[in-house]
Amino acid sequence: MNNKNSLINSENIITVTPADFENMALHIFQYQHANNHVYRQYCDAIHINVDKINTLNKIPFLPISFFKSHSVKTGDWAQEELLFESSGTTGEITSKHFVKEASVYEHSLMHGFTLQYGSPKNYVILALLPSYLERKNASLVYMAQQLMKESGHPDNGFYINEWDVLKDKLISLNACNQKVILLGVTFALLDFAADYQMPLHNTIVMETGGMKGRREEWTRAQVHTYLKEQWRLSAIHSEYGMTELLSQAYAKADGIYTPTNTMQVMIRDINDPLDVAEAGTGCINIIDLANINSCSFIATEDIGKVSINGTFEIMGRMDHSALRGCSLMAI
């Protein structure tokens, strides 16, 4: 990384501690303001005085929609190693995240996952991601591939319609007390659970969201209650990530997410996008230090609640009126 400040390198970013997070984020802000054309233009348009940015809540957050309309890159580079692209209907503009270095994403993923779940080598990774497998550049598929690669277990695998095979695999793995993570998009987990009721005592079921018109919308509480009943589980886990992020958050119960060490979630006022707090209810802002080569400060279109201890919940998506209130400009 071409930067005179030795603090900003991928190893320091990926292994950052809570005590060092704010200092690292402020250094990355200065670096990205100087080297990210889109982000600097945005900061200039909302009249940000860079010299006054000395706390996290003063950092400007780039509206996530810019990943649809611009190439969001920090530094002068042309070729990405990975391209993550969001889903969309035919003709719809999708978000594109140009990932300069695959290793930054992979190391961030593994470090954050291991902090919360231990080594992937302890698990068989099974993925029920039908709608995502059909997309070429889905970040969730790449995440699952990397976890499987690190796990190295011969029973790892993706499933689309082979539900009988998946059922037999889960039963046999649970019978021999093998730890399993079943990572699935919500609608597929619900459909699979409806057809196959069974005890999964050695399995972590991790839903990633994703209904999007595939079936009747359920609340997260309804989804979790149903899956727990069908599979006799005490809790359903959740993963929170998106195309525009290289870090994740995980919830081990009740949709209460804990960000990995490279990620912090903040709250902005729904009517004033520059009013940002470390806790409260409103629009979700995310600091993702792993986004060193794109933009680490993202104003999402999610509504949520952040607790003082840094955990958070997602309550829904902003409607168009809220979007107008949270958007300031289009370069």
Note the main attributes of this structure.
six-stranded mixed beta sheet; alpha/beta; disordered C terminus; Rossmann fold; 331 residues; seven-stranded mixed beta sheet
Polypeptide structure, described:
- With 331 residues, the protein is of the alpha/beta class.
- The chain has two domains: 10-72 and 262-326, no CATH class; 104-251, Rossmann fold (3-Layer(aba) Sandwich), CATH 3.40.50.980.
- It has helices at residues 10-14, 18-35, 37-45, 66-69, 102-117, 130-133, 139-151, 163-175, 186-195, 220-231, 320-326; strands spanning 62-63, 82-85, 96-99, 124-128, 157-159, 180-184, 203-207, 237-240, 249-251, 257-259, 263-268, 276-277, 280-288, 297-306, 312-317.
- It has a seven-stranded mixed beta sheet with strand order 5-4-6-7-8-9-10, with helices on both faces.
- A hairpin with a 5-residue loop joins strand 14 and strand 15.
- The longest helix is centred in the first third of the chain and has 18 residues, at 18-35.
- The chain is globular.
- Residues 320-331 have low confidence and may be disordered.
